[in-house]
Amino acid sequence: MTNPGTTGLIFNEPELWEKSREGRCGISMPRSDVPRADLDPALTDDAPELPQLSELDVVRHFTRLSQWNFGVDSGMYPLGSCTMKYNPKTNEVQAARKGFAAAHPLAGDEFSQGALKLMYELEQLLGEITGFPAVTLQPAAGAHGELTGMLIIHAWHAKQGKQRSKILIPDTAHGTNPASATLCGYKAVNIKSGPKGILDPQVVAEAMDEETAGIMITNPNTLGLFEENIQEVCDIVHAKGGLVYGDGANMNAVMGIIQPGKLGIDVLHLNLHKTFSTPHGGGGPGSGPVAVVEELIPFLPVPRIQKENGTYSFITDCPDTIGRMHTFYGHFGVMVRAYAYILTMGADGLKRASQLAVLNANYIKESLKTTLDLPYDRPCMHECVFTDKSVQEYHVSTMDMAKRLLDYGFHPPTVYFPLVVDAAFMVEPTETESKDDIDQFIGAVKAIVKEAASNPDKLHSAPNLPKVTRLDEVGAARKPCLKG
């Protein structure tokens, strides 16, 4: 076996500034094809001090850094409520096609027919999948879609002649929901879920009044449970003149099985970068389309896309619109990937994906419920939520188990969320993981629980194998380094 110390691989990578050497250059500038001109004096201050590097320096630096990262292409990424599934590479091929990748947003409708057609058809497809008559692709991410949806609800109430002051938000909703409501001027009112982990219609009825603009419901919710009383809840809210906002970030569990627009939901956002298989994480890009019922179409953001006599164009003449939510029309590359994914899968494939996502999550739940504490022992949807109660006697926490999973080659699941469950350990395998991979994950969790009993210090110091080990969290909190 080769001695790792003699392979020539270096894993202590310095910063680019440390690698900089006077005179190194990684590019060859093309000969100027325009006349020289004096710069404005305001632009002629000292040149920025950038690191001087060769092309090889730059390539090796970022390649080494990429080898330290964990991504869905390198292993299972079971982040609960995030749907970090594998992204088919054909989606990347389509998004990289020159006609799409090089399309300029200022080219105008006449020279953008292909892009406009793709966006128009994607809106139609998403409307068909969700059961809504109209969709906007403009929002740039899930939380941006939430804000867009809540602005639409706000505008609708204003149009009725009386604005309202409150929004109901269950404790099983996504954490960004209260922020989206607050940004629209509403007071977020917390609604507790019932003993089965879902909404109790009676609790909603007691909280719903004429000052309440509506409710924001995540379905399936963050416990991985389907809101079985959704239609009754929608009827209660509508009876009091409110609207129902649906957080569709967890749509990966119900594609082709339910249509939220047929359940009484008025506004729904989707996460193309989760359900419809676009890479996400690390800040984006994302896409959070919003679908609405017929009554709310006038309030959609502009521009909107129309098809007339086989020609596609943007329209802005919409008096009741909430306005523009994004520069140009959103993250187009994400739309291409989602469009490719939907066409590749077809209706049967999308439904099958959800069925497998639910099957995989329930397989993990049943396999680990005697190993970890399971607060809601009932069939789940796309994710299941455990706690650390079974290892607390060894002074081992959810965080310790999550960190130790890194030593077994798995990205940790979501921890300490949702808040309705103490010390939550939230697992979402998605449909793209095979039984072999899931069995390895289950085996790793069982091994870690055994280690908690026999050698808890091994968990307290984890992770030990990755390039970056555990941070001093107490020190980081007391003496945070806030400089870039």
UniProtKB/TrEMBL annotation:
Q: Does the keyword Transferase apply?
A: no
**Domain called Glycine dehydrogenase C-terminal: residue spans:** 353-454
Reactions catalysed according to its record: N(6)-[(R)-lipoyl]-L-lysyl-[glycine-cleavage complex H protein] + glycine + H(+) = N(6)-[(R)-S(8)-aminomethyldihydrolipoyl]-L-lysyl-[glycine-cleavage complex H protein] + CO2
Pfam families in the record: GcvP2_C, GDC-P
Example GO molecular function: pyridoxal phosphate binding
* Alphabetical keyword list: Oxidoreductase, Pyridoxal phosphate
Highest rank taxon of the organism? Bacteria
UniProt-listed Enzyme Commission number(s): 1.4.4.2
Domain annotation Glycine cleavage system P-protein N-terminal: ranges: 108-297
Q: Which cofactor does it need?
A: pyridoxal 5'-phosphate
Q: Name one GO cellular component term.
A: glycine cleavage complex
The record's SUPFAM superfamilies line, in alphabetical order, gives: PLP-dependent transferases
- Role description: The glycine cleavage system catalyzes the degradation of glycine. The P protein binds the alpha-amino group of glycine through its pyridoxal phosphate cofactor; CO(2) is released and the remaining methylamine moiety is then transferred to the lipoamide cofactor of the H protein.
Query: What is this protein's record name?
Result: glycine dehydrogenase (aminomethyl-transferring)
